[in-house]
Structures are given as C-alpha cells and as structure tokens.
Amino acid sequence: MNKHLLKSILLLSILLLIIIFTSIYTAEEQKERNKKEIEMVDIGLYQEVIPPISDKKAVEEPYIEEIDAEYLGVYTITAYCSCEKCCGKYALNRPDGIVYGASGKELEADVSVASPLDFGTNIIIEGLGEYVVEDRTADWIVDKYDGEIIDIYFENHEEALKFGKKELKVWRK
Ligand SMILES: [Zn+2]
Fold first, then answer.
1. Domain-embedded: residue 24
2. In terms of residue numbers, what domain contains 58?
C-alpha cells in the first residue's frame, strides 16, 4: 500500500470521528435544552391550574374550635337567587326592587341564607365561611332534608346554578 493513500485514510478517519463526536454532543445539548423547556412549560401550566382564591375567606376547622362554635352536623347546602325560578310568587312582589327575606331583612348575596334555623342565627359552613339566617326554606324542602338544609342567597341565577348542591359541615356561632 502506498504511503500517500494510508495518510489519506488516516486523515479521513480523524475527520469522520470529529463529525461523529460533534453531532453526538449537539444532540445531547439539544436534549438538555428541550428538557429545560418542558420543565418551564410544566411550571407555567401548574401556576394556571391553581384555583383562584375566593374573596370570602375559607374557614378552617382549627378556627372553629377557637371560637367554640356548636357543631350542628352535615347539612345539604343549596343555592338560590331572587328570580322567579328560585322564589316563585315571592319574586313577583319586590317593593322598590328590594329583596327581603322572611325575617323582614334585606337579603345580602353571599351572606344571607334560608334555613329552618332561627332568624339572625350566625352559622359557619365548612370551607365557605360565615352566614346569617335571614330567610325561610319552603316546608316541603325542610321535610325532604329532615331540617338539615341551608340555602345560600346569591346575586344571580347563574351563580346559584354554578354553586349547585353540596353536603358540608355546619356550625352555629
Ligand atoms: Zn334564581
């Protein structure tokens, strides 16, 4: 074999090795970069799925123990508003557009509730907060839930629908 050819082959091999190593290195670097990007996307998505904090302070049980509230049991919690669907004939009689509860007090969204409990009773609903009994639940509903029913008054029908129906612990403050 001639010396010149051997030299060429050797040079070519070195060149080939350099190309192979460079491409492996580049691929690894790209993989590392992709991984970092995925991690960043993950963090972004995670931040998006954190539920928004309600404007009404969530009530934790240690707080309830602190204020020595009386535990009433697990109640069915429903939602209503001032519309005809929720209030029937009462919705047709709103003097000056003011929504009064059966207690005679003006109802306040996210504060007033209807319940068979005494008017003016301050209650705490698990995870939701404090409310005041200002309205009465219809008798047939009270019977259906054996008296363990609280209907929260909402600003509009859409919000009431969104709340739906829940089973939650209730305390009397
Ligand atoms: Zn309604």
1. no
2. 36-66
Q: How far apart are CA 44 and CA 32, in angstroms?
A: 19
Question: Encoding tokens for residue 46?
Answer: 């995670």
| 3 alpha carbon – ligand 1 mean position (Å) | 97
Q: Is residue 128 part of a domain?
A: yes
Residue 36 scores a pLDDT above 70:
no
81 CA from centroid of ligand 1 (Å): 4
pLDDT at 15 over 70: yes
Going 5 to 11 to 12 to 13, the CA torsion angle's sign is positive
Number of domains in the chain: 2
- pLDDT tens-digit profile of 112-121? 999 999 999 9
What pLDDT sits at residue 23? 82
Question: The pTM is what?
Answer: 0.66
Give the amino acid at 121: T
State in Å: Cα 78 to ligand 1 middle.
Answer: 12
Residues 59 and 141 in one domain: no
Look-up: residue for tokens 């029908």?
157
Measure 84 CA to ligand 1 centroid, in angstroms: 6
Task: Give residue 160 CA to ligand 1 midpoint distance, Å.
Answer: 7
Say whether both 156 and 74 belong to one domain: yes
